[in-house]
Amino acid sequence: MRLYTTTEGIAREEPDGSLALVDLPHPDLGALLRDDERAAATVADAGIRRRVAGPDELDLLAPVVAPGRFVIVGLNYHSHVDEFSEGLGIEADHDVGEPFVFDTPGTPAIGPGAPIVRPPEAPDQVDYEGEVALVIGRPGHDVAPADAWSLVAGLTIVDDVSARDRQAEAMTSGRGIGDAKSFPTFKPLGPCLATADGFDLPLDVGLTTRVNGEVRQDDRTTDMIHPLDELLAHITRQMTLQPGDVICTGSPRGVGMWSGGRFLRSGDVVEITVEGIGTLANPVA
Predict the structure, then answer these.
(1) Which residues is 248 bridged to in the sheet?
(2) Residues in the chain, pLDDT under 70
(3) Where are the domains positioned within the chain?
(4) How do residues 252-284 score in pLDDT, each as one tens digit?
(5) How far is CA 198 from the centre of its chain?
(6) In whole angstroms, what is the distance from residue 195 CA to residue 255 CA?
(7) Cα angle 114-213-127, degrees, rounded to a multiple of 5
(8) Which CATH superfamily is domain 69-283 in?
C-alpha cells in the first residue's frame, strides 16, 4: 500500500489508483508513526474524507515532514565502491567489514517538486545520490537480524544531497561529514511511503537517477554490500531507532563527483525512480 502526506493531510492509494484522503487528525505520516505503531493498518481502516483521481491532483509533501534523524550509510553498493576506488586511483576492496554508518539531526524534509537549494556558502559541488530510504515505525535497540525488518514502517526515496567540497574539507580535517549533507533542502523524500509488507528480503528493486532526463545512476538493490536486515541490526547496536527516523541505505555508481565532476546547477531537475515506490523529482535552485 502506498501512503502519502499532502497539504490536506494523509492519503492512501486505492486499488484503482485513486487517492483517498483519510479522516485522521495527524498532519503527516511521521506524526502518525510516532503516535501509532499500527500506522499502516490505521490508515487502511480510516474513513474517507475525499477521493481524487491520483497524486497529481494533490500537493504532496515529504512522507515524513520532520524526521527524528537521518541515518546515513556510506559505500553500500559494490558499484559505488568501484567508482570511489577508481576516482582515488586505488584498488577496490569490497571486504569493507562493518557498515559505515553515521547519523545527522533530523531537519525539515522537502517533498516532490520542492527545490533543492544550493547553499550560498557552498554552491559549486552540490551532488545527488539516489537512494532507497527506510522509514522506522517502532522503536528498536540491539535487535537481531531476524527481527530487524519488523521495525520498518515502509520505504521511500531519498536524494542524499551532499556538498562535496565541504565533505572533502571535513574528511581532511578529521571532522565528521554530516555537515556536508545537512544543509536545508538536502534530503528530499517522496513521493510516498510504500508499506514494508509489499517488499521481500533480500530487497530486489531497480533504482534509476536522471538529471535533466539523462540517466546518471541505474542499478538494483541486490548490489548492496550489506543486506538490509543485517544493516538494521548493526544500526540498532549503535543507537536506538525511533518512529519517524529515516535510514538512507546507500547510493550506487554514478554520482556526480566520480563522473567527471558533474555537479548540480540551477535549473537542473533530478528524478529518482525506484520500483514499487515511484519517482521523486526536484528542481535545483
Answers:
(1) 72, 133
(2) none
(3) 2-57, 69-283
(4) 999 999 999 999 999 999 999 999 999 999 999
(5) 17
(6) 28
(7) 60
(8) Fumarylacetoacetase-like, C-terminal domain (3.90.850.10)
